[in-house]
Every structure is written in C-alpha cells, then in structure tokens.
Amino acid sequence: MKPRRELTVLVAADLISNLGSRISVVAIPWLVLETTGSPTKMGLVAAAETLPYLLSSALATPWADRFGVRRTSIVADAASAVAMAVVALAPWLGFGALVALVAVAGGLRGIGDRVKHVMFRPAAQRAGVPLIRLTSAYDGLVRGVTLFGAVLGGLLIDWVGVTWAIWIDAATFAVCALLIGVLVRPPAPAEPAPRESYLRALRGGFGYLRTDRVLLTMLVVVSALNMFANASVAVYIPLWVAEVFGDPAGFGLVLGVFSGGALLGNLLFTAAGPRLPRQLTFAVGAAASGTPRLLALALSDELVVVLTVTFLSGMAIATVNPLLGAALYERVPEALQTRVIGISGSLAFLGLPVGALLGGWSAATLGLIPALWVMAAACLVLTVAPLLVGGLRPGAREPRPAVPRGAGSGAGSGAGVPAREAAAPHAE
Asked: CB within 10 Å: which end of the chain, N or C, has fewer?
C-alpha cells in the first residue's frame, strides 16, 4: 500500500474507534440509568472505566513494545469489540458484571489508543507528511468526531435503543481492528529491539520524561487545562446556565460554540502552524483557552458575551494539542515512544477526574461566582507561569534529556514498528 494511503487508513481506523467510544459515552450511562435508576451507580460505572484507562495507558506500554504496537492495537480493538458486545447484555448479567466489563473495556481502550497513536509518527514520515500538520489536522478531525458522536449516540438510543447503540460501538472496534490488520503493513525494522525487563522498560519512560523539561512542562499545563475544563463542563457552566440563563439549551449551546471555535482554529493552525514559534504559541494558546472562559462566566450575565469568549477560547485551544503531539513525536527517541506517550496520556488526563471533584467542592463551599474567580486565578498562574519562569520561557537554556542506555533512536518495536484519544494526550 502507498505510504499516504496507509496513513489515511490508520487515521480513519482511529477515528472510527473514537466515534464508537463517543457513542458509548452517551449510551452506557443511559443503560445504567435505565436498569438501576441510580445516579450513584452511574458515577461508579464512569469511574470503573476511567481508572483502568489511565493505568493501562502508562503501565501496559512495556508489554506493548515487547508484543509489537501493531499487534497490540489489533488485539486490543478486537477484545474491546467483544467486551462492549457483552456490556450490551449487562441487564441480564447484573450490575457487578457491568462494572467489571466496563473496567476491562476501559483498560483495553487505554493501551489500544496509545499504540495506535505511536504508529502515526513512522507512517507520517514514510508518507512525507510534516508531523505538525498531521497532529493539527487529526486534532480537528477528533473534535468533529467527538461532537458528531455525542449527538449520534443520543439519536441511536432514540432510534434503535440503548442495547443496539452499544453493539454499534462494539462494531466500530471490530472495524478498526480489521482495517489495521489488513491494510496497515509497516516495514520490518533493520534490527530487533533490545529485550528489557518490564520494570526497567517502565523506568526508562519515566526517566526520560522527568529530564525533558519542555515536554514535562507542556504536559503539566495540559493536565491543568483538562482540570479546569472538566470543572467547567461538569459544574460551572450548568450552574451558570441554570442561574443566569434559565434554559438548559444554553448548556449545549456553550459546548457547541467551543467545539465550533476549536474546529475553526484547527483549520487556521493547520495552515499557519509550521511557521509559528512553537513554545511561545503553545503557552499563549493555553493561557487564552482557559482563564478567559472562567472570567466570562464570573463577570457577565449575558449569553452572547459568554458565547463569544467561549468561541475565541476554542480557537486558542486548537494550538495546544497539535504542538504537544508534535513535541512527543519529535523529541522522544523512537524506542521510548510507546512508554513516554502512554505515561504522558495518563498525566494529561489525570486532570479530568480531579477537575470534576474540585469544581463540585468549590461551588458548594464558596458559591459559583467566588469559585469562578478562584479557579480563574489558579488557571492564569498555571498557564502563564511556564511562559515567564518555566520550561517554555523564551531564551531558556534547555538541558539535553537523558536517554536510558539501550534506548537509541534507531531501535524498533517487537512488531516491526518504531516505538497514540490526540495524536497525543490532549486538552479537552
């Protein structure tokens, strides 16, 4: 297969998998609500999927390197298809079985997502596609799939029922495994990857990330952005809409406008991104995408003002994910790609559950407006500090990251592929 066609198939397979995951984000909570009627159990099921996802993203990566990232992707997606098909039978199996199955599916999806994204770099290099253009275009496509998938999930529940919606999710994983298994055939490496023990391989990933100040700073900023974004989506925006606007349709409108801004920003950044200073653009985009959204909610009771600021913040976030993805691909040695991208994903997404808890606590303790002011100040500090005193400040001298012995850039993975929710971990 021609290199560009292979890259297209790989990206399309990942997007199909993402589409199914977004359908299940709507369908599984609805299934729990239909079968138990308990909001507490809905939260328990969500946590049962999230925690294994974060753990497998980081801890399963040495095994993926040993087994081969392509084969790991195929097996993880095929097993995910089976797991989701059985989830659809959960009303007959009981709530305990549902929690266990969702946890298994979350763990499989975590490592499956990571290894697919690891394959993007060598596929783009063979196709002659600049990495910054790939990560920017991919980020825009994922945001479009996210928006479409959530809407489609609700429509499928209405049209065919929640059980069939989950089976459709299972089918997307099967299609993804089939596409990669049949149509993605990367060349074999010139020499096999060195064998390492599990703990040594894992330490190598953590060790590299600890010494790369620029990459670590970018990941801390993205984790902070995810924390504040999830606090807004889970708590602040619904409360503001209820108290100020009074119509629940406003909640969906705010989220939709942010997605629209991000899509437009992706189009612009895909064209202009390669010519912009990367670290400065990342820092400015991060600062402009977080604090203004919180301040708009705190300062205004006009929906049009909130929507305008939200749209502009969405445009700003479009610079963050592609630059983080390109940094991971370009800075990390090939032999460490799987491990470092996996650990990075866990670190970046750690802000999501923390944000939901922090948002609920701050609003209940301080009240909505004071909580927004406090969180806006914290967001400003965490996103601007790296530009002033951290690893992203202009002119900062950057020490060379330590590369563990035996992890040279020429080593490949066990399946013949140089060592993935973003062509990298991403900000929501």
From this structure: N
Q: Exposed (0-12), middle (13-18) or buried (19+): which is 337, by Cβ within 10 Å? A: buried
| Beta-carbon contacts of residue 179 (< 8 Å; ≥ 6 apart) | 9, 12, 13, 16
pLDDT value of position 36: 82
- 177: pLDDT strictly greater than 70: yes
pTM of the entire structure? 0.77
Q: Which residue has the tokens 């301080």?
A: 366
* Cα distances (angstroms) measured from residue 395 to each of 196, 303, 388, 390: 38, 41, 11, 11
Q: What does the alpha-carbon distance between residue 228 and residue 352 come to, in Å, rounded to a whole number? A: 8
- Torsion 33-36-37-43 (CA) sign: negative
- Using alpha carbons, list the distances in angstroms from residue 380 to 93, 262, 283, 285: 48, 20, 11, 12
Residues 208/335, Cβ–Cβ less than 8 Å: no
d(C-alpha 353, C-alpha 154), whole Å: 23
| Both structure tokens of 360 | 């609920």
Q: For residues 133 and 261, give the distance between their C-alpha atoms in angstroms, rounded to a whole number.
A: 18
Token pair in block for residue 306: 């909130």
| Token duo for residue 167 | 């089976």
* Contact indicator for 10, 420 with CB cutoff of 8 Å: no
pLDDT digits (tens, 9 = 90+) for 293-340: 999 999 999 989 999 999 999 999 999 999 999 999 989 998 898 899
pLDDT in tens, 378-416: 999 988 887 776 666 655 555 455 555 544 433 333 322
Q: What type of residue sits at position 340?
A: V
Tokens 């599990």, residue located:
198
Of residues 375, 256, 383, the one with CA closest to residue 319: 383
Residue positions counted in the chain? 428
Phi, psi of 119 (to 5 degrees): -70, -15
Note every long-range contact of 81-85, with CB atoms under 8 Å and residues 24 or more positions apart, other chains counting.
81/170, 81/171, 81/173, 81/174, 81/177, 82/170, 83/108, 83/170, 84/20, 84/24, 84/166, 84/167, 84/169, 84/170, 84/173, 85/166, 85/167, 85/170
